[in-house]
Each structure stands twice: as C-alpha cells, then as structure tokens.
Write a structure and sequence with these properties.
Chains A, B: It is an enzyme of class 3 (hydrolase). Two copies of one chain form a homodimer. By secondary structure, chain A is α+β, with helices and mostly antiparallel strands. Helices cover 34% and strands 24% of the residues of chain A. Chain A has helices at residues 14-29, 46-58, 71-80, 91-102, 123-145, 159-165, 171-185, 193-214, 307-314, 334-338, 345-348, 373-378, and strands spanning 37-42, 64-69, 106-111, 151-155, 218-223, 226-232, 239-240, 243-244, 250-251, 260-262, 264-274, 279-281, 284-286, 290-294, 297-302, 323-328, 354-358, 387-391, 398-402, 408-413, 416-417.
C-alpha cells in the first residue's frame, strides 16, 4: 500500500510508446488546434498519459484534463464502503464531461485495467455499482455513442493486466510481452505508423463499401454451437476504420481495429449462438456463453462461468437482451494470429466476428447523423445503458449474406472473406 | 518520461503515514457516514490517497473521488501548448465540484507539489494561467472559503518537494526527513494522534477566546523592516484549531495548524511590512517582500526575487492589494522550532505571524454564517480571487493590541505570547 511513484527501469520500449502516443493523437483523435482533450486512464498508465499530453499540446490542444482510476481505491470501496455506496456514482463529474464534449472537447480513454479486478467481489454489488455508473455516465456516453465528437481508445500494458495475459511469466517479462503485443496490434512496431494506418483504413473502407453495395437484409452465421440469423436494421450502413464524427473530424476511435460493423435489427434476430472467446466484463470472466434469440430477444442464456453476472447484465434494461452491433473480422487478423486472449474487448473483438448486446451506434445508418432517437428505433436500432461485445467468430464460422429476395451470397468461409 | 508505477521500498514510515490518513479523516474532516469526499492530490501522493480512501470508506463515506495533478503534465503544457491555452481553465470541472459541495460532499486536498515547478517558465503565462484558474475555481472555492463544508489539507512528502527542502541530501534521505517533519508537525509521531489533536485544539481555543474577549480595534506589529497597524474588521471574531462549518461539522481544515486568526479591516491598514520568510507562490519564490499600505491598500511593493510575479499577483483584482487575514503564531511553535523552510504555506504560515492578501474568511465574523457578502464588505471584509499568506513574524516581532479607547495591551513580545 505504501508504493511511491518512482522512475524505474521499465520493460516498455519508450520509442514505441511515444509512437503510440503520436498515433493516438494524430490518427486516433485527429486532435485539432484549440480543441480540449478529456482523458481517462489507470494510474499505472502515467507514462503514456504524459506522452499523449505532450503530443496533444504539440498538436495545439487547448487544455488536456486527465482523470485517473486506481485499482486499489476501487478495491478499498468494495472492501470498506457502506452498502448504500454501491447505488451511487459521480453524476456531477459525468455531467461535466458531457458539457465539455458539447463545448467541443475530444475524448481519449487509456485501457489497461486488470480484467479480473473484481472477480472476488460480491457480484450483486458489482452489478449495482455498474448500473449506477451507467446511468450517471449516460449523458457523456451518448455524445460518444452518437459520435458527436472525435474519440479514441488506446491501451497501456499495466502490470496487473499483463500478469493475467501471461500468467506463467515474471511480471517484467509479462509486461514486455503485452507491450509488444499492443504495439504490434496498434501498428506502431514499424517506422511509419501513421502511413500504415492510412493503408489499413483504406482496406477496411473497401470491405465496408462492398457490404454497403450488397444491402443484405440479414447475415446467417453457422459454426460449432451457432446457427444464428441476424437481421440488419433498415437503412443500416457498414463502417470500418477511420470514420467522421458529427463535429466533422475523421478519427479512428479504436486502436487497434480490424472490424467492419453495422447495426442489426433489434427485433429480427433468430436462433442460437455460442461464444468463441471468454468475455471479460468489468472484472468478471464470462465463459462459454450460449444464448437463444426469439424475435430479437435473448430468451435463454447460459455460461459455464459467470452465468449470474451474465444474467444480471441481461436484466439491466429491455435493450440489454437485444443486439446493438454485428461486426466481421477475418480469422487471419493480426490479433487473432497472435493467439493471445487479452481479456480485453478492445483487442479480443478484433480477433473474431462478434455481436454486441445493448446500445446501437446511430452512425451505422445511412444519413445516421440526422436521425432522431425515435427514427433510429423505428428502423430497428436498439437502445440500452450497456454495450457489450462478445465473440462468435472463429476459423470454423461460415457467414452468408441474405438479400431481400431471399438469395444468399457467401460473405465468409471458414472465418475468411469469401 | 517512461516511469511505470512500482511498489518499491520507500523511506516513508507506513505506520505514521496510515496515522496521517486516519487523522485527516477523523480530525481534519470529521467525515460523516454517507458523506461523499472530493480529494485532490499530486500523482506522487498515491500511497496517501489510497490510505485516506480506505479510512474514508471505513468511516462510512458514500463515494471518494480523487483528482490527480501531475507535474510533468503541467510542464508539458508550459513547453508545448499554444499561447491561447493559458487563458483557459477546466471550468466544467470546478462547477461540478461546487455542485458536489452544495450536495454535501467534503473536500480534502493533499499538498506536496514541487514549490519551484514553474520557476523557469514565463511569468506572464504563469500569471495568466493562475488567473484563469482562479476565476474558474471561484464557485468551488467560495464553498470552502465561506466554510459551507468540512474540509482539510494534509501533506505528502513528494520527492520533488523534498529535494527543495533538503537540497544537500540524496533523494531517499530528503524524502525521509520531510516525511518525519510532516509527521511531527501533524502530530502523528505519537501513539494517540487523535488525543493529541484534542489537547492542541483546546489550547488554540483558549488563545482565541482571550483575543475575542479583548475586542481590539487594531494590532500594531513592530520588528525589523515592519511598522504596521492592522485595523481589525468590525465584528471580527478570532478562530484557531477546530472549527464548525456551516454544515454543522467540526473539522480541522489545516493539518498542521498553530495559528489563531481573524479578518482585518480592508480599509484600515497603515504602514510598512517586510516578509520574514520567502513566499512560494504557485511555482515562483518571492523573497524579501517589502510593501507600504495606505488606507488598507498596498501602494508600493518590492521583492529581491520574484518582484514581477508579486506585482502581477497584486494586479489580479482590487482586493488583491488589501488584507483578508491576520494570524498570530508564537515563534516557539514546533514548525518554527524545526528551523526548516518548507516552501509551502501550509507549514511556513504556522511558523510565524502572518498576513494574507485577498479574500477574507466570512467565518471570522461574529455570527459570520448569517452575513451576506454585502454585510461582510460593509464590516471591512475584503473580497478577491486570491488568498495568499506571507510571513511577517519572527523572534524579533512585538505586537500590541489597540483598544477602541486607544489604550494598548501587549499581545506578543519577541515573538511569544505576552
């Protein structure tokens, strides 16, 4: 508990870390001169925060404000706080962030928390705290989910996360391995990361352009434990890679990203699906998910581990049982090829095709920026406090696109673009 | 720049650090069950933040929210941010804090920043940034200055501060020495710190009770370079040690504290005064201050070092040239006896009698809680964006109390209570 902050030798390559900071500012955010930046980070990510702060100011940022989360403080709350604390959240802070975004600030999140932090805490308290936080965070999250502003997530190899991904290695080795995996997936392990991101964005754009040209009404997923027809929302639009926010700034919200994705129809999902990777949800690992959909709604849900948390998540609100996103990722993606389970959606979702429970992205509609929430709902867009991705793709999945006339086109075979 | 957070051996005694956390929560704040806590801290104070968080939750805190400042991020702004950044501040955050205080949250600040952090930066930029911050912070500061809520400041021995106080020592030695000085001054170097604070509060209460009984209209300070008559505000009240906030909670805002203090009359200060210790003001050291007052207003100001910053401070607003506080501290106080210059007002002001430029404390009036800002002003209370203490006391200062009939009573002789 008595750990001072020290400048110590570190297994994290400082050159690549600084490239990651540059990519976050120049590619991830496309931060504009005079634009403020609101950043959130684990305290352990301080070295990356400092480099991003530097590059944000070099890019002309007005004010960079960083809000740190500390795993020890979170655990102290679970261990010592009175019961009534778990229905509370810092609504004033989130309202302030929403105001900052409304006034033009960009948003950057550094991921890297220990995915298993809360695995030994009372699941009921975890669910209550998450729900209170989701409700309080909604004004700010809406600005991000509606893509009102340019935003970005990058990752830092926290020791607590690295130990989870590489449990058999010493901490320094684990941190170095995770750092190198993050650097490779984020395309900063090469001399011209910004150029590499340009080429990668062009590739993802051509995939989504093809899907948008086909205008499928549904996708049919078949694989071990999965036979699922995912209806697509009326007027859905596929996106992938760089995308333009409503403030006119073209950014790469997720670094890394390998997916093309769109909005399913909340009422038109039928069949059953099995997860192909564990889902790490706010400190709990949920494994071997098996669900059955009827008319878009999950009517049956099981998991070999974390089933209680899964069912609590599904009970968050009506939209938590319906899909808000469907995404296609080839099995040969670099993250999949790494063979690692990151216990972190930002990485694991880019290793495989996936679906997401909960809130849809209004940008994934033709002319989405001008649609009201009511219009989004009328076209099949789902609404919820949550948005949780989980993987159903693998090297054994086949996907057909179904046209309005019922004809089928192969989209993927054995996990690769057909 | 690439400094990961490590749990390393530390020269800071963990037992005394935990006692300091307990004293902050139980004595400094008297945190109530269900009360939220808003904490600010340098990132280097993480070990103390964690212990305070733990003890706050044990005391029944609702939510503990900590906001970290990072010296490297501050320097990155000065070195890289566009010029227009320096007229900006995170107003949305301070407005949110003001809302949290209005809703019942307590406030704890951990001090310990490098007092010389900005000494090599452009003084004009420092002044602009400070002014923008003062304006933005005003809604939150008013809740603190008006004593609407229970609040507290404690200190952590940051390495960058320790190196300043003990420049001839290795960093670990400097941190250990500063930690021990903080622990002694904060009365946590004994077995029953909470009991020690009870006795200390009783002693300070008896001093202020005597001064309140005397009802002096002015104090006359005489010493090397000082011949100053400080008129006291009409209906002023002396305070010292524990005090009851408007929310009904009795707390010790400053840890350490050795002073009894009240509100001078903003229009009735005459003569000249010289500082007896350097003033460390937001990164600049201001030394050998010499000022002349006419009708309460500083009409002439000099300093051997930092004069430009001093004059910028005085130009903040009209109230910045007038006094908002006068405080009495015996020369034999433990902090004075340590012989150290802490470059930190929280400590240095408790080593000597001092005056403060700027905003007065409305609690330092009889029935102060019920006075409007207009009534405070009518009775002589000063108003300003700033509140800056500086030392005029020493072992050579004599102070007389002047009664309404002009008669004089010795208050201090050679720096000690007469």
């Amino acid at each position: 508990m008595n750990a001072p902050l020290r400048t110590a030798a570190t297994p994290v390559d400082p050159v690549k870390l600084e490239r990651l900071a540059e990519v976050a500012v120049k590619v991830g955010l496309q931060l504009q001169r005079g634009q403020d930046l609101v950043m959130t980070a684990p305290v352990a990510a301080l070295p990356l925060v400092r480099l991003i702060t530097k590059h944000a100011y070099i890019a002309g940022a007005g004010l960079v404000s960083t809000f740190y989360a500390d795993e020890e403080a979170t655990l102290a709350r679970y261990r010592h706080a009175p019961d009534e604390s778990f229905d509370r959240a810092t609504d004033w802070l989130y309202q302030g962030m929403a105001k900052a975004y409304a006034d033009g600030a960009a948003r950057l999140a550094i991921a890297g928390d220990n995915p298993m932090l809360l695995s030994n805490e009372d699941p009921a308290k975890v669910a209550r705290a998450n729900k209170a936080n989701s409700i309080a965070y909604k004004p700010a999250l809406e600005k991000i989910a509606n893509f009102d502003i340019n935003w970005n997530i990058v990752s830092y190899p926290n020791p607590s996360w690295a130990r989870q991904v590489f449990p058999d290695d010493a901490e320094d080795v684990a941190v170095e391995k995770l750092a190198n995996a993050i650097f490779a997936a984020s395309r900063v392990d090469r001399d011209d990361p910004v150029g590499a991101w340009k080429a990668h964005n062009a590739n993802l754009r051509s995939r989504s352009a093809w899907l948008n040209g086909e205008r499928f009404t549904a996708l049919h997923f078949r694989g071990p434990g999965t036979d699922l027809t995912v209806g697509l929302a009326d007027g859905h639009e596929w996106h992938g890679g760089a995308s333009t926010a409503k403030n006119g700034i073209t950014c790469n919200p997720n670094i890394p990203t390998e997916e093309v994705f769109t909005t399913p129809h909340a009422l038109r999902v039928e069949g059953h699906a099995s997860s192909t990777k564990p889902l790490s949800h706010q400190g709990t690992l949920i494994d071997d998910i098996r669900v059955r959909f009827e008319a878009g709604r999950i009517v049956e849900a099981h998991a070999s581990r974390g089933e209680a948390v899964l069912n609590k998540v599904l009970d968050t609100d009506e939209g938590a049982r319906r899909l808000g996103e469907v995404a296609l990722v080839p099995h040969s993606s670099p993250i999949s090829a790494s063979g690692l389970l990151f216990y972190n959606t930002l990485f694991d979702e880019n290793a495989a095709c996936h679906i997401a429970l909960g809130q849809c992205y209004s940008k994934c509609f033709l002319d989405g920026a001008s649609l009201s929430p009511e219009q989004v709902a009328a076209q099949g867009g789902n609404s919820s406090l949550i948005h949780i991705d989980w993987m159903i793709g693998s090297g054994e999945i086949d996907i057909d696109g179904i046209r309005a006339d019922g004809s089928r086109i192969p989209v993927m075979r054995a996990g690769e673009w057909a």
